[in-house]
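TEACHING EXERCISE
Course module: macromolecular assemblies
Task: Read the component lines below, then compare them to the predicted structure of the full complex.
Student: A.B.
Group: 4
Components provided:
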Amino acid sequence: MKNLQIEKTEDCPSVYFSFHENVYKMGGDSRPENPKVFYEPVISWIRELKAHLDFEADVNKDNPNYKKELIFEFQFDYLNSISIKFIYDLIKEIDALNEPKPIAKVIWHYNEGDELMKENGEDYAHMVKLEFILKEV
Amino acid sequence: MITMQEKVESYELCKKIEDLSVILSYHGVLTKTMTNKLLNIYTQYAEASSLNITTKKVVYSILDAGMENVLKYTTSPHSTDNKSFTLLFQQKSNDIFSLTIGNYVNSETAEFLKQYLTKIKSHSRPELKELIEKNLRKGELSEEGGAGLGLLIIAMHSNNDFNFNLIETDKKLHYFILEISIPTKKL
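Instructor-supplied answer key:
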């Protein structure tokens, strides 16, 4: 599965999702001019990841040592209103990775004193079932 | 060559702007590029100020949501002259910022805004949060590409301290003015 790597711009966050390295990071400012164009490939990548994980779990169904843990790390400085919606859609897809077994969790980093970003994280945490850790940096 | 009279008028205008504690003002065409420029000016102001990080972000968020709303729903009165957007951002007192945004909307949008803003103005913060959550769960996008969150975010972050006016300019158009008060502390 190919890595998803998007460089950060003035309006768009950086994305680094790598199945092979098991690294999933996203952060920066999010107020893209065309949010659908920006976020749809990111959400599709997570759906593709789900298919890969299901396949890998099936191949390893008799392997007692097989264990998978995915940590999605987000560190946003700003989310505009439409980005709040797309990030929710993305987190829902991450939540779906935890069926049938919980393997994915989110670490939501926010800058010291940034109550707004902390609140965004709390709101998402309240809306999904996955483990959602809030971390001040 | 600038005449003495023009120099005096310029000075008086500058003085008036200073007296009104205007941080940012703009009248003209609103584009995504202009939105970025205005937000950059605000960011420079915020960085030099002693505001806490949450207040800086709340103000940024309201400015951005207000302009996003205009970009999605504005209607130009004339196809050749669409300099219809007005923004005035002031510090009203030590405790309050004021953001006034004006733009043309069609009659249908005017009616929607009137009903919608009247409804959300009566909501408490938990009720506004509930509406935001409901919209997120619904997951729909409008034809304009919005998720119906902008005005709710403005209402929530301003503690519902906003007023609006719709001035009928002709049968098809209204000038929509939204004035938002934003506390500078205790956010």
